[in-house]
Design a protein that fits this description.
Number of helices: 10
Distance between the termini: 35 Å
Strand content: 5-15%
Radius of gyration: 17 Å
CATH class of the largest domain: Alpha Beta
Number of domains: 2
Shape: globular
């Protein structure tokens, strides 16, 4: 975010020029948001993004040059501070899991209303893990499946609650309010979760939990 203007800088990678134009208009005509880059593919973005780095990137999956999932891996490797939100028509479990595993911080469907999309972008910038309602239900559905007999890590009841809140897109502050604990305590539980799951970020923790049906 640009401190002086208090604006969230957003870029778009999508091969649908009409959809990109609509997103650009929404962003540039909404207070607190600015589109700083619009790209038809991953290769084009990687060449130019350093000149105009965004705070949040909106990423399609189905593109002709490099898939959005592969692009997330490249982007987060070269620009780890950019928070990538998938914005796609695909809602199948495998693509959701692969995207989170690749480093995306959230997963949205293209049918998301513009005003809700802006909220999700803000949540991502603030440290949340935003997901469209349909996607969130799928993710939570994984958690409700029977536990594996052998789990890769044993989470405490409180750690399970924190991880579930993380999956639902809550920020640290919101998790603290929901569970009636301090933000520092949320951070403490998350560090324990990361250590037990052998991951380094919230998106990796969610992806690991989904893959192994830990909860």
């Amino acid at each position: 975010m640009n401190a002086a203007a208090q604006t969230i800088a957003v870029s778009i990678i999508d091969d649908d020029s009409s959809f990109r134009n609509k997103l650009e208009w929404v962003l540039n005509n909404s207070d607190g948001y600015q589109c700083v880059g619009s790209y038809s593919g991953c290769s084009d973005a990687l060449k130019k993004i350093e000149e105009y780095p965004p705070d949040v990137m909106l990423m399609d999956i189905g593109m002709p040059d490099v898939s959005g999932i592969e692009c997330v891996e490249k982007l987060t490797y070269h620009f780890p501070n950019i928070r990538v939100l998938m914005l796609t028509v695909y809602s199948d479990d495998e693509k959701i899991f692969q995207s989170l595993q690749a480093g995306a911080v959230g997963y949205l469907l293209k049918k998301t209303p513009p005003e809700k999309l802006l909220e999700y972008v803000h949540d991502a910038y603030a440290g949340g893990v935003p997901m469209s309602g349909e996607v969130a239900r799928k993710v939570l559905g994984y958690f409700r499946q029977p536990k594996l007999e052998q789990r890769s890590a044993e989470l405490s009841d409180r750690e399970v609650e924190v991880l579930e809140a993380l999956v639902e897109g809550y920020t640290y502050k919101a998790i603290a309010e929901r569970l009636f604990i301090s933000v520092n305590t949320v951070g403490f539980h998350l560090r324990n979760i990361y250590a037990k799951l052998h991951v380094k970020s919230r998106s990796e923790a969610i992806a690991f939990a989904l893959k192994h049906k830990l909860l």
